[in-house]
Amino acid sequence: MSITKRLLPLIIGVFIFTKTHAQGGWEKNLQGRWVYVMKSTPPQTYSPTKKTSTSSEPVKKTTETPIEYTPVKEKEIVFDETGPEQDGYRMVRLKEKWGLIDWNGHISIPPVYDYIMPSPAWLVAALKNEKWGFVAKGGNVIIDFQFDAVLETFENDRYPLVIKDGLKFRIKNTGEPVGKIINMKEEAAAKLLRSKYKYVLDFKNGFAIVLDSNDRYGFIDESKNEVVHPKYDFACDFKEGIALVRLNNKWGLVNRYGQEVVPPIYDKTGYSFTEGLIPLKLDSLWGYVDSTGTMVIPMKFEYGGSFDEGLATVGLNGKFGFIDYKGNMVVPAIYEESLYFWENIAMVKLNGKWGYMDRNGKIVAPIIYDEIKDITNGKGSGLLNGKWVDVKFK
Fold it and tell me: Cα(164)–Cα(106) distance, rounded to whole angstroms?
């Protein structure tokens, strides 16, 4: 890892630690631990979590077992590089490996790691064989070396932020993930989209509407490829591979390949492309086109509704009826109003009264009600003589 990529400013060069402690040096104690030895002082103890007393009185035990050491002859350790003091600790490099020393010069983390990231918390991020783990101030490995990167270390009540196998997440001091897990590839793609588009709406049926800086509408697919360049005044979500678009107050259709199968020349349109057809209005007449833009049902109706369960409401000579996919009149246009089919039953109005009709045009409940409601559990409901009553079908 190059110096320019290190996360902390470092002091380059040779640093002789006896500049601060001129009366002592580094030695291994009987337990094999590196300690800083004061010249001609009696045996002492220290704890990595508490400063050592300057008197001969031992420091009280804290969270770790104190280490006792015996005075030896004065000796100096020469580090190849050191970092600035932070929260009472200092990074040190010895023979291309990094460690941590405390305020008394004791080795808190031995210099055996490729790099470390100091933290005010008791756990320190360390790099070994290109993987990151966490080591306690005292030298014990607490979280194994498994992460590809550490973005934030333990600090106060904040969990560290790590990257592993393309996923970004926070971890507890046990290494267990906590909170949201973010896919880095998806996050990068989302950032790229945000830099390119003003808005990116939710994906529906494989596509998402996008708006550019001029509030023009277009589409991207789930691979974040631009399918329709933003140029329209408005657009609806894709359905059955077709999307409605509006330009200069005129409507048209685009397909999943970005092709304009119906140019934006129509005055009105149905709510969506359903059952392979969509109604379009030009001047005063409605017709139906398919997904290729072919006019399947000629423009001859005063009104055209979307297809629902194989039938669509149409208006002709001021009345309403139903047609099939070929434009044939299945139910003659004799009704003042007609609503959609539900459970194969439609609501129709004739001579100011409402009733129910099946898909063949047969009246299954008399047209005698002032108002009626949608079918629930196979039954209708009608307002008759000021009272709501259940309506059963023949």
Answer: 33
Domains of the chain, earliest start first:
3-184 (no CATH), 197-266 (2.40.10)
Provide the edge-to-edge strand list for the sheet that holds 295-301. 268-269, 278-282, 285-289, 295-301
Distances (CA, A) of 15 to 6, 102, 130: 19, 16, 27
pTM: 0.54
How much is the pLDDT for 121? 84
Between the alpha carbon of residue 280 and those of residues 256, 291, 346, 393, the distances in Å are: 20, 13, 23, 34
Structure tokens, 321: 């009826």
* Beta-bridge partners for 25: 37
Residue spans of the chain under pLDDT 70 = 1-78
pLDDT at 176: 92
> What's the Cα-to-Cα distance from 382 to each of 11, 106, 239, 347, rounded to whole Å?
88, 89, 35, 11
CA-wise closest residue to 274 among 341, 228, 343: 341
How confident is the model at residue 364, as a pLDDT? 94
pLDDT at 322: 94
Q: What angle do CA 37, 41, 44 make, to 5 degrees?
A: 70
The three-state secondary structure class of 226 is strand
